[in-house]
Design brief:
- The chain is 51% helix and 10% strand.
- It is α+β, with helices and mostly antiparallel strands and 249 residues long.
- The protein has two domains: 103 residues; 119 residues, 2-Layer Sandwich (Beta Polymerase, domain 2).
- Helix 2 packs across helix 3 and helix 3 packs antiparallel against helix 4.
- The C terminus is likely disordered.
- InterPro entries: Iojap/RsfS/C7orf30, NT_sf.
- One of its GO terms (molecular function) is ribosomal large subunit binding.
Length: 249
């Protein structure tokens, strides 16, 4: 009897002790459950917002694309419905048919366009005819790109009447002028059917080239040679005879 009572009393105490322990643990478990549920709901809310934002962007992009496609379709009429401005100029008063013509000039590379020689371009610009005198031809070839002086030496030289003294910018420029001059003379002689002997001296020189054409001579010189020899001053300075003192009787 007493053993049964003691056993029941122990069971009751054990039950109460377990209930008390469970009651103390309950708050911790409840907090964990609430925290887990809050985190889960927060994550779901963030994912939902991200999905809605992405969906809104996709919808806007699709609407803009569709709107642009509709505008393009409205602007582009079928080929068979388009009007030709050249056939109906009254409907297109601002249409310029000449401006729409294809310009093929840009296909031509200027580097491969044949250019006339320098002497020929100068003759065309100055309108010097091929039947001009040989002196005028030579003078026109060199006068635009160099300093040119003409000296009359008929009264003091027995082998020529005039000199054309040309001061080039450099040795290379001097030789280029000499070649242009010779080409112009040969072309003139060919067109007139005339054979003329051209004497050239100094083709290999670095400072002075002479073209002797008989009645006149062309001197092509670098700036240094022009200053050193100063042919203009040499052939224009009056040479005075020395005064002769009378002997005293």
């Amino acid at each position: 009897m007493w053993r049964l009572v003691a056993t029941r009393a122990g069971a009751v105490l054990a039950t109460r002790a377990g209930a008390a322990l469970a009651t103390r643990r309950a708050p911790c478990t409840t907090l964990r459950m609430f925290a887990t549920m809050h985190i889960s709901r927060t994550s779901d809310s963030i994912l939902d917002k991200e999905k809605r934002r992405q969906q809104a962007q996709d919808d806007i992009h699709e609407e803009l694309t569709e709107h642009s496609r509709e505008e393009d379709e409205e602007d582009m009429a079928p080929i068979n419905e388009r009007l030709d401005p050249t056939l109906m100029p009254d409907l297109y008063p601002d249409f310029d048919a000449e401006a729409t013509e294809t310009d093929d000039s840009w296909y031509v590379d200027p580097a491969f366009t044949p250019q006339p020689p320098l002497w020929q371009r100068r003759m065309q610009e100055k309108a010097v005819p091929h039947d001009a005198t040989l002196f005028d031809l030579c003078h026109s070839v060199v006068e635009d790109s160099a300093r040119v002086d003409v000296v009359d030496v008929a009264d003091r030289c027995d082998w020529t009447a005039r000199m054309i003294v040309v001061e080039a910018k450099s040795a290379r420029h001097m030789h280029a002028l000499a070649e242009d001059l010779l080409k112009a003379i040969k072309e003139r002689n060919r067109m007139r059917g005339v054979e003329l002997t051209i004497n050239v001296d100094g083709r290999e020189s670095d400072d002075w080239v002479v073209v002797d054409l008989g009645s006149f001579v062309v001197h092509l010189m670098t700036p240094e040679a022009h200053q050193t020899y100063d042919l203009v001053k040499l052939w224009t300075t009056t040479i005075r005879a020395p005064a002769v003192e009378e002997e005293e009787n």
